[in-house]
Design goal:
Blueprint: E1 13-23, E2 27-38, E3 42-56, E4 63-76, H1 81-85, H2 88-94, H3 98-103, E5 113-125, E6 130-149, H4 153-156, H5 162-172, H6 174-177, E7 181-198
Antiparallel strand pairs: 1-2, 2-3, 3-4, 4-5, 5-6, 6-7
C-alpha cells in the first residue's frame, strides 16, 4: 500500500460563442466554438460547425423528405489530477533528468485533443412514418495519454550505469516497486466508420 499527499490549484475559464439559423427554411447551420484557458497547459480553442440541407423538403408521399447533414468539431480535455501528479516529464525534471527528457522529446503534459468529421444523409418514407439515416464519421485523436511503467523507465534512459539505475529505481519508489505508470502524451490514432439506423 502507499499514500500520496499532493495539492494543486487549477484556475480555468472558458468563453463560448455560437450562432445558428436557416436560409429559406431549407438550409440550416450552426457555427460556434470556445476559447478555453487551463492553468495546466495554457489557451486552447475548440471550433464547431454543423449544416443540413433539405434536397427534398418534408412532404406527404412515399419519398417524403431527403436531408444531407455535416458536422465538424474540435475538443480538448484537461488531464486528470492523477495524470498531472504522475507526469513522466514532471518526475524527470524533479529528479535532475531534464536533459534526458529533452533527448527523449518528453515535454510537459499537454491536453489530449479530438477532431471529428461526420457527414450523412437522412431519407424519410411514407409521409415521415419511416426515417432512414446513414452517416460516415472520421475521428482523429492526438496527444492522448499513455503510461510508461516504472519497471521500464530505468531501461529507457540511455547511458545509465548500474549504480545510476539503482539510484533511479529508488527515486521511482512505488512507481518501480508496484510498476505503476507515469503519464506522457504519446498516443495518436484515428477511428472511422459508418453508422446507420431506421426509425
Amino acid at each position: 500500500s502507499y499514500a500520496t499527499n499532493d495539492a494543486t490549484e487549477r484556475t480555468n475559464y472558458d468563453y463560448l460563442a455560437a450562432v445558428h439559423g436557416d436560409f429559406k427554411n431549407r438550409f440550416f447551420y450552426n457555427l460556434g466554438g470556445s476559447l478555453e484557458h487551463y492553468s495546466l497547459f495554457g489557451v486552447e480553442t475548440s471550433p464547431r460547425a454543423g449544416a443540413s440541407f433539405y434536397v427534398l423538403r418534408p412532404r406527404s408521399g412515399v419519398f417524403s423528405g431527403t436531408r444531407i447533414l455535416f458536422n465538424y468539431g474540435d475538443a480538448v480535455r484537461e488531464p486528470a489530477l492523477t495524470d498531472q501528479f504522475g507526469s513522466l516529464y514532471q518526475f524527470l525534471a524533479a529528479k535532475g533528468y531534464q536533459t534526458t527528457a529533452q533527448q527523449l522529446h518528453i515535454g510537459p503534459l499537454a491536453s489530449p485533443a479530438t477532431r471529428t468529421y461526420e457527414g450523412g444523409v437522412e431519407q424519410s418514407f411514407l409521409s415521415q412514418r419511416v426515417v432512414f439515416r446513414a452517416s460516415y464519421f472520421h475521428n482523429e485523436f492526438g496527444r492522448q495519454i499513455e503510461y510508461v511503467g516504472g519497471h521500464l523507465l530505468p531501461n529507457l534512459i540511455p547511458g545509465l550505469t548500474a549504480a545510476q539505475q539503482l539510484q533511479l529505481e529508488a527515486a521511482l519508489g512505488y512507481y518501480y516497486t508496484d510498476d505503476y505508470g507515469l503519464a506522457v502524451n504519446t498516443e495518436a490514432f484515428r477511428a472511422q466508420g459508418i453508422e446507420a439506423n431506421v426509425e
